[in-house]
């Protein structure tokens, strides 16, 4: 049976996340010959992400240099989703300030993570003996992640989630989220996304309480 015959469709909530200012950090460490410390941090963080994923029925789909694609169940609770992203953020924050911060020759104004979230149908395909996923939700989540910090470079640990996904949470979950986090409805322009000229999103700050 060839690879193309092994495809099927699945419904997933997609989270794409990335480390802010990672290129600046690595360039600084390369000058001081401490680049191995950054590699060690990524290895430790990956282990933490895998551990958290196993405990919460999350698939770690792909590692993208300094970010990941995570696949959650389609009907994951919004409260559980955000608390999981907080766990990952806390692990990274601890690792960075324990292992890297004292090595930097310059102070990084934006250190942290940003997250993009969408959900929908993905095509699951076995290619070259590996599982790959293809579909609009991955593309949209990636574009949202890249826009999560565009408006203010000093903001970290922010989540940009499709408005349709946020609206799909249970009413009591949305109430708990808005009581626990700073939440704002926003419009963003998403490149190479159909209908992305004025895309409706919800921006959630994981570490700022509502005003």
Core attributes:
single chain, 211 residues, alpha+beta, Alpha-Beta Plaits, 8-stranded mixed sheet, 6 helices, 38% helix, globular
Radius of gyration: 18 Å
Find the count of extended strands (DSSP E, 2+ residues): 8
**Nearest-integer average pLDDT:** 87
CATH H-tier superfamily: Nucleotide cyclase, GGDEF domain
CATH architecture title: 2-Layer Sandwich
Poorly predicted runs are: none
- Classification by helices and strands: alpha+beta
Beta-strand proportion: 25-35%
Enumerate how many helices there are, as a single number: 6
What can you tell me about this protein's structure?
- With 211 residues, the protein is an alpha+beta fold.
- The chain has a single domain, classed as Alpha-Beta Plaits (2-Layer Sandwich).
- Helices cover 38% and strands 30% of the residues.
- It has six helices and eight strands.
- Strands 1, 2, 3, 4, 5, 6, 7 and 8 form an eight-stranded mixed sheet that branches.
- Helix 2 runs antiparallel to helix 3 (78-99).
- The longest helix is centred in the middle third of the chain and has 22 residues, at 78-99.
- The termini are far apart.
- The mean pLDDT is 87.
Map the helices and strands.
Elements: E1 8-19, H1 22-31, H2 35-55, E2 59-63, E3 67-73, H3 78-99, E4 113-127, E5 130-134, H4 136-147, E6 158-162, H5 163-167, H6 171-180, E7 182-188, E8 199-205
Helix pairs in contact: 2-3
